[in-house]
């Protein structure tokens, strides 16, 4: 972080500070959610959206960012599976998923509600309910077709994220899982900024066992530490392949450097468990079906429940 006077919390590295003549105009300002305000010179301070988000999410007990660093590790799938498992764990718990992967929203399909529409009232957008105690919000509900491409620059994506965080009427929630795109760029800076005063519980990081995925996950862990996001733990997805015929296990992505468990030991972050690669999970997600409820005796379901138990404990430690 830059040491300039007036630097906002969670600002990008090398931020010139809100009092600088180059505020909002320097190359380091590109993509920062505070850029337009700093450049205008009208407000020398944090984005007022931060307070709007804090107020909107004050009745959400656990706010969890789901991060990956790398695409293709099954982050959205794991988000959906965990949300269903948490909701099934206790029918009195209210659980929600916020899909902020603006360019590739997948939660409407994975959760089986892609034909639903979002309604707006005086209190804001109403999320779409998957079950009595599980709801979801995604830009996918706002598109005229599932084939529509979102071709937006950073500031417009940041504005959409701000709307999602400050204008969705979640009501009282026990868990809000925020499904993010891969990387450590615009969307992640926006989220860390807008949630900086909203008592963010922490980040859940998803990876696969091979070193090429772990390289990017290490960067995600470094990002969390630089912007002061608590790391709830790491989940290793696709750790082994479950044959749908004989149920035997085999490694598809060899853990040549020890996998996620070894990485967590090296970096001193919690390891929450491993999930197998089961073709039935992919089929259920494509069809919007509830894998956890339909296949309660599956080894994958048991692994999901173990991860949820560890995640709940990690959230309690944060409180």
TrEMBL record:
[4Fe-4S] cluster 1 binds at residues 15, 29, 32, 38. Pfam families: ParA. Residues 1-20 are annotated as: Disordered. CDD domains: Mrp_NBP35. The keyword Mitochondrion does not apply. The lineage of its organism: Eukaryota, Metazoa, Ecdysozoa, Arthropoda, Hexapoda. The keyword ATP-binding applies. It comes from the Eukaryota. GO terms for biological process: iron-sulfur cluster assembly. PROSITE patterns: MRP. Belongs to the Mrp/NBP35 ATP-binding proteins family. NUBP1/NBP35 subfamily. GO terms for cellular component: cytosol; nucleus. Residues 1-10 have a biased composition (Polar residues). It is found in: Cytoplasm; Nucleus. Component of the cytosolic iron-sulfur (Fe/S) protein assembly (CIA) machinery. Required for maturation of extramitochondrial Fe-S proteins. The NUBP1-NUBP2 heterotetramer forms a Fe-S scaffold complex, mediating the de novo assembly of an Fe-S cluster and its transfer to target apoproteins. Implicated in the regulation of centrosome duplication. Negatively regulates cilium formation and structure. This is Cytosolic Fe-S cluster assembly factor NUBP1 homolog. Keywords: 4Fe-4S, ATP-binding, Cytoplasm, Iron, Iron-sulfur, Metal-binding, Nucleotide-binding. ATP binds at residues 69-76. Its main location: cytoplasm. One of its GO terms (molecular function) is metal ion binding. Binds 4 [4Fe-4S] clusters per heterotetramer. Contains two stable clusters in the N-termini of NUBP1 and two labile, bridging clusters between subunits of the NUBP1-NUBP2 heterotetramer. [4Fe-4S] cluster 2 binds at residues 243, 246. Heterotetramer of 2 NUBP1 and 2 NUBP2 chains. Its cofactor is [4Fe-4S] cluster.
């Amino acid at each position: 972080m830059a040491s300039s006077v007036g630097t906002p919390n969670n600002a990008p590295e090398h931020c010139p500070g809100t009092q600088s003549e180059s505020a909002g105009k320097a190359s380091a300002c590109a993509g920062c959610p505070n850029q337009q305000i700093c450049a205008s010179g009208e407000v020398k301070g944090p984005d007022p959206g931060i307070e709007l988000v804090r107020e909107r999410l004050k009745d959400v007990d656990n706010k969890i960012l789901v991060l990956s660093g790398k695409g293709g590790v099954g982050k959205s799938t794991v988000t959906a599976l965990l949300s269903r498992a948490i909701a099934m764990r206790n029918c009195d718990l209210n659980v929600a998923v916020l899909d902020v992967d603006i360019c590739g929203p997948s939660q409407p399909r994975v959760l089986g509600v892609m034909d639903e529409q979002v309604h707006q009232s005086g209190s804001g957008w109403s999320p779409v309910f998957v079950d009595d105690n599980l709801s979801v919000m995604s830009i996918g509900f706002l598109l005229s077709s599932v084939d529509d491409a979102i071709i937006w620059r950073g500031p417009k994506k940041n504005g959409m994220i701000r709307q999602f965080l400050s204008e969705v009427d979640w009501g009282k929630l026990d868990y809000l899982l925020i499904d993010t795109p891969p990387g450590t760029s615009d969307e992640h800076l926006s989220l860390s900024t807008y949630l900086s005063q909203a008592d963010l519980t922490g980040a859940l990081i998803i990876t696969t066992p091979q070193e090429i995925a772990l390289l990017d996950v290490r960067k995600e862990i470094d990002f969390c530490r630089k912007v002061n996001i608590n790391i709830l733990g790491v989940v290793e997805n696709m750790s082994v392949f479950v044959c749908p015929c004989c149920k035997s296990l085999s490694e598809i992505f060899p853990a040549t450097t020890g996998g996620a468990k070894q990485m967590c030991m090296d970096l001193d972050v919690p390891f929450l468990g491993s999930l197998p690669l089961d073709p039935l999970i992919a089929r259920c997600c494509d069809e919007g079906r509830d894998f956890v409820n339909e296949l309660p005796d599956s080894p994958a379901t048991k692994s999901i429940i173990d991860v949820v138990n560890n995640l709940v404990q990690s959230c309690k430690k944060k409180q």
